[in-house]
Structures are given as structure tokens and as C-alpha cells.
UniProtKB/TrEMBL annotation:
The keyword Electron transport does not apply. This is LRRCT domain-containing protein. The keyword Nuclease does not apply. Residues 20-44, 213-235, 398-447 are annotated as: Disordered. Residues 160-210, 348-399 form the LRRCT domain. Residues 20-31, 213-224, 432-446 have a biased composition (Basic and acidic residues). InterPro entries: Cys-rich_flank_reg_C, Leu-rich_rpt, Leu-rich_rpt_typical-subtyp, LRR_dom_sf. Keywords: Leucine-rich repeat, Repeat, Signal. It comes from Monopterus albus. It comes from the Eukaryota. Residues 407-416 have a biased composition (Gly residues). Gene3D superfamilies: Ribonuclease Inhibitor (3.80.10.10). Residues 1-18 form the signal peptide.
Length: 454
């Protein structure tokens, strides 16, 4: 009986197995096949959803920065005007890669791993005006890649390891056309050694195909000593990141800078130099940045601003100097800021003494400037005061002498005898000194009185 029971249980289990089998097999197939495929599609959708689509000034932006993308997705909107692909993992720009975006005006591809641009990579982009390719791995490119871009106005190619040989000839000749003044600025040769550091815009093109250039200088003149290495300050183009949309921005924040970078771009509207270690602003360091409207120098170690430190910033609207070590402004520091509208000065150890008066004087004569953060830090008796309140007490009027009926004689309130004497003096000189200036009338009558008495 026991054996029969076991046999029946075995038959029941065996008959149930085929019903579970297909479901289990389908699940396995799903894991290996269809489900995985649906997962890829879902991943693509998630990547598309992660891209931020928004409108600004009537134009459509698609922000796909920092998405680990290696290519362009086919299901992205076709009617976008600005495509932001910075800080992804794109390595090669394939032919017709962007041809679906026929309305595109700007394409931001900076800070990728791009090492190759195929000839037809920008086909279809006849409306494109701005192309950002800086901070990549490009060694060579040809003019052919840019031919589909008749409206190209801004081209950024710096911080790429350009190999200045024959293959770069057509691109450099195109960049050096006088009418294309905003194409390829600041891009430099990395090799060969003889041309290293030279700007593509100023390079002698005839040297590109010169085999003699490829030889090391030490090989050409073996007996000549090596020149000492020159110390070159980091340039803004290599240290910082440039963004052209929605407004041109040079981002140099958190770069451990201890000085203002050299060769600041001239077409930048906003500049962020915050969170560095800059201590001293010297004259005319922003002279070329004439279009600058916002300058952020907050959270540095600034303690000295030389006169003419802001020379050339005629159109600057906002200046942030908060979180620094400023005690006062030297006379004339702010005289170049004709159109300033906002001045941030908080968290600085302002010292309330005579040196602070220039800043208050300037603000008083520029009532359109909104400012914040002017609080006395020293001396102790004025700590926590508003600087403008301190200046009012410094320039406060002397109390009027109540005993003289409101006349301030400057005699420390010695009664009325002096006033009576002055009245007598006025009577004795009446009619003779009316033509004298009033200060002279007040100082000289005692002398004339003595002469009359003798």
C-alpha cells in the first residue's frame, strides 16, 4: 500500500512538470532573448528621458550632458535648435550622425573622447552657427568635414593634441581666412616639436609639409646647448571650460588657480572664477574681455585690488567679490565700471577706518548699484555696524552751541562776550568792508579796530 501511494505521487509530479516547463523555459528565453531586447529599448528610452528638453527665447534645447552616451539616439526630437552633448563618451563622429537635426544652430561636443571626425559627420547641418569640439583627442581633421556648415561662425578646437603635419594643411588654411576670425582660436600644435605651442591661426602653413621640421632641434645642431625651459602660465583655454549657450560662459571655478589665467577669450559674456586661490588682482588683466557682463570672483583669497584691476570692463553688470579677504578698496578701483548694477561684498573683513570711505563715496555717487554685505569687522567698537552708518558718524556735524542762538563760533561756548565783541567790530567796520569777501570780514576787523584806537 505504501509503495502504491509513492507511485501515485510520482505520477502526479511527472504529469505537472510539462505545465511548469514551458513557463520556466519562456522565462529563460526571455532572460536570454526577448526580455533582454526589451531591456535595451527601455534603456534607450530612459536615456532619452534623462535628456532635459526645454525652451528658451523661443528656441528648443536638448541637454544630454553627462549621460555616458557613445552615440546619438535616433528617437531624439528632430526639431531641436541646440544639442548639448558635453562630457559623454563619444569617440568617433560618424558620417550623417547629426543629419536628422536639420534645424540645429549649436552643437556642443566638448569634453568627450573624440579622436576622429569622418568627412560627412556634419551633413545636413546647414543652419549650424556654433560647433564646440574643445577638450577632446583630435590630432587631425580636414576642411572637408566643415564644408556642410556654410553658416558656421564659432568653432572651438583648443585643448586637442593637434599634429601639425601635411594632413592638417587644408583645415589650417581655412582657419586662417581673414573673414573667419572666430574659427579655431587658441588651438595649438602639440607635435612636431619644432611647432609645439604655435597657434593654428598664426602658423606658417608652408612648414606643415617640411620634412626638416620633423627633426628634433638637438639633431640639427648637435653642438648647440639646449635652451632653458620656459615657465608658461596656464591659459584659460586649457584650464577652463567654455559654454556658448544660452550665453557664452567661461567656467574656471574650482581649478586651484592662484592668478587670473592668461589669454582670456574676448567674446565671453559671463566668467566664473569662484572657489580658487586668487589673492591679488593686478591692472588690466581683464582688458580683452570687453563684452563681459558678469564676473564671479567669490570664495577666493582676494586681499588686494589694484587700481585699474577692472579696466576695460565697461559693460560689466554684476560683480561678485563675496567670501574673500578684502579690507577696503584702493582709490579708483571701481572707476571703470560705468554700468555696474549689482555688487556682492558679503563675508569680507571690512575695516572701518578712513580707507573705507572711497567705497562709500563711490556707491553714493552711483545710486543705481545694488550692493550687499558691507559690514564692519574691525575695529571692535564698530564690529557689526553697517559701513555706511560708520561713515555717517565719522562725518557727523558738530553740535550747535545753544547759548549763541544757533551761531557756531568755534570757541567752545565761552559765553556771549566774544559775540558782543564781534557785533561791535561789525559796527565799527560797517560801510568800509562790504566789498571784502566774507571770510576776510570775519578775520580782519580786530586789526582795523586797533588801528582806529591808536
Amino acid at each position: 500500500m505504501h509503495l502504491l501511494t509513492m507511485l501515485l505521487v510520482f505520477l502526479l509530479l511527472h504529469s505537472a512538470e510539462p505545465r511548469r516547463g514551458p513557463r520556466s523555459g519562456a522565462a529563460e528565453r526571455g532572460k536570454a532573448g526577448h526580455v533582454r531586447g526589451r531591456g535595451r529599448a527601455g534603456l534607450n528610452r530612459r536615456q532619452t528621458q534623462e535628456c532635459k528638453e526645454y525652451m528658451e527665447a523661443g528656441e528648443k534645447y536638448l541637454d544630454c550632458q553627462d549621460r555616458q552616451l557613445t552615440t546619438v539616439m535616433q528617437d531624439w526630437p528632430k526639431d531641436i535648435h541646440h544639442l548639448l552633448l558635453a562630457r559623454n563618451k563619444i569617440q568617433v563622429l560618424r558620417e550623417n550622425m547629426f543629419s536628422q537635426f536639420t534645424q540645429l544652430k549649436s552643437l556642443d561636443l566638448q569634453q568627450n573622447d573624440i579622436s576622429m571626425v569622418e568627412g560627412g559627420a556634419f551633413n545636413g547641418l546647414s543652419q549650424l552657427t556654433t560647433l564646440l569640439l574643445q577638450h577632446n583627442g583630435l590630432k587631425t581633421a580636414s576642411e572637408e568635414a566643415l564644408l556642410p556648415l556654410p553658416r558656421l561662425t564659432y568653432l572651438r578646437l583648443y585643448d586637442n593634441p593637434w599634429s601639425c603635419h601635411c594632413s592638417l594643411d587644408s583645415l589650417i588654411r581655412m582657419l586662417q581666412v581673414p573673414s573667419k576670425r572666430n574659427l579655431g582660436n587658441y588651438a595649438k600644435c602639440v607635435e612636431p616639436l619644432l611647432l609645439k605651442g604655435q597657434k593654428l591661426k598664426k602658423l606658417n602653413v608652408d612648414l606643415l609639409c617640411d620634412n626638416e621640421v620633423d627633426r628634433r632641434p638637438d639633431d640639427r645642431e648637435p653642438g648647440r646647448p639646449k635652451p632653458p625651459p620656459t615657465k608658461v602660465k596656464p591659459e584659460a583655454t586649457s584650464m577652463c571650460h567654455t559654454y556658448m549657450f544660452p550665453k557664452p560662459l567661461l567656467d574656471c571655478s574650482n581649478k586651484s588657480l592662484d592668478h587670473i589665467p592668461s589669454n582670456l577669450p574676448s567674446d565671453i559674456v559671463r566668467m566664473d572664477l569662484s572657489s580658487n586661490s586668487i589673492k591679488h588682482l593686478r591692472p588690466k588683466q581683464f582688458l580683452l574681455s570687453k563684452d563681459l557682463k558678469l564676473l564671479n570672483l567669490s570664495s577666493n583669497s582676494l586681499h588686494q585690488l589694484d587700481t585699474a584691476a577692472f579696466a576695460g570692463l565697461l559693460y560689466l553688470r554684476e560683480l561678485d567679490l563675496s567670501n574673500n579677504s578684502l579690507h577696503y578698496f584702493q582709490y579708483g578701483v571701481l572707476e571703470d565700471l560705468y554700468y555696474l548694477r549689482k555688487l556682492s561684498l558679503g563675508n569680507n573683513p571690512w575695516i572701518c577706518d578712513y580707507n573705507i570711505h572711497y567705497l562709500i563715496y563711490w556707491l553714493k555717487h552711483h545710486p543705481g548699484v545694488f550692493y550687499t554685505g558691507l559690514i564692519c569687522s574691525e575695529p571692535q567698537e564698530f564690529r557689526g555696524w553697517r559701513v555706511e552708518d560708520y561713515v555717517k558718524t565719522y562725518n557727523g556735524e558738530c553740535p550747535k552751541d545753544q547759548q549763541t542762538g544757533g551761531m557756531d563760533t568755534g570757541q567752545g561756548g565761552q559765553g556771549g562776550s566774544d559775540n558782543d565783541t564781534q557785533e561791535v567790530m561789525g559796527e565799527t567796520t560797517e560801510g568800509q568792508d562790504d566789498r571784502l569777501p566774507r571770510p576776510l570780514q570775519e578775520r580782519q576787523p580786530k586789526t582795523f579796530e586797533i588801528i582806529r584806537l591808536t
